[in-house]
Amino acid sequence: MLVNIISGFFYLSLTEYHSKLSDLALEVMAQEHYEDDALIVAMAADSNPDSSHELLYNLKYIFTKAGWNSFTGVSSFGSAYKKYKTTGRKRLVVVDDFVGSGKTVISRCRELNKVFENAEVEGFSVSVKVLVSTRRGLENIRAEGIDVTAQHEISKAIDDSFPDTVAAEYRNLMIELEANLSKAYNDIEMPSMGYNDAQAAYCRENSNTPNSVFPVFWWPFNNDSNKRSTMLHRAMEDA
């Protein structure tokens, strides 16, 4: 099972990362008058280190190099309205590197829409652009009526990748493997099968592993609380 899942991993190299980031930027630049009203918003909730901050910083260079000298971005979605108040920019483009179940994206967009609607801002829009997403995540987001694009899509590494009988067997095997892991770390529960059952088989070169990835590949503690060697790595304070 593990060999089959690993063979289907999508590995995003640094070269591919920058290529897909440029493609994401081109999508924004294809929109009319983006220089005047676009606001690039990191998916992050606060100032704690987050992959969307890295994305925003790299996009700043790409857009500026392309001639958008008035590039405007905010490092957390909660700061978008404040930035709108000072700039008048109300075409919100929320960015991140990876989407698993889509739950976080839906929550962020609902909150942004609520804030701008309550403030009676006319003509605002919220769209989402990411580098990599699960297909299920995109389906969940689009079912909410949210405009979202991804530069690359991946399937659930078990449920969407094997016949039903094999998938059922693999799910049981994975849960058996997870039984060897600690159930929590500092009140953070081990995300069985990946956060919200995302079943992601994905990693980015030199990058923090998303919690949507099967924890057997990155959760660093056995069920006896001893540390274990892992193929991938994730900072545990935001596990």
Written account of the structure:
- The protein folds into 2 domains: 2-10 and 156-238, no CATH class; 11-154, 3-Layer(aba) Sandwich (Rossmann fold).
- The model has no long low-confidence stretch (mean pLDDT 95).
- It has helices at residues 2-7, 14-29, 34-37, 51-65, 80-87, 103-118, 135-143, 164-178; strands spanning 10-12, 38-42, 73-74, 91-99, 125-134, 147-154, 184-185, 188-189, 202-204.
- It contains 8 helices and 9 strands.
- It is elongated, with a radius of gyration of 19 Å.
- 37% of the residues lie in helices and 18% in strands.
- Helix 2 packs across helix 4.
- The strands form 3 sheets. It has a 5-stranded parallel β-sheet with strand order 3-2-4-5-6, with helices on both faces. A two-stranded parallel sheet has the order 1-9.
